[in-house]
Design goal:
about 100 residues; two-stranded parallel ribbon; 5 helices
């Protein structure tokens, strides 16, 4: 799993924190990494998040602003509210995992 966050916390700190919840993370794109790759290189649009720069096909976020940027710059965003009890199902639907395969 790859995490793209606007947090300034170190990738190792974020991996450790998520591991406490049983989530294994292969890569963390934090705000300093995003700025280094996206903002300083002239080939990407300057926006809050730009998932295509990191090979991300679907960005899941709680910000409608990121969704607007996705429409403007051509990347997929699924907005999930923090109180949405069905967020897992919505993410799985967005990536095309049938309900029978998800073990929910």
């Amino acid at each position: 799993m790859l995490i793209n966050t606007s947090s300034g916390r170190s990738p190792n700190a974020l991996r450790f924190w998520l591991r406490l919840y049983g989530i294994k993370v292969a890569e963390v794109i934090n705000q300093p990494t995003h700025e280094r790759v996206v903002w300083r290189e002239r080939r990407y649009p300057r926006c809050t998040k730009y998932p295509p720069a990191f090979g991300i096909d679907l960005h899941v976020d709680d910000s409608e602003g990121v969704e607007i940027e996705g429409r403007m710059h051509g990347f997929r965003v699924l907005v999930v509210s923090p109180d949405d009890r069905e967020w897992v199902r919505r993410v799985l639907d967005a990536v095309g995992v049938p309900a029978a395969d998800s073990h929910l």
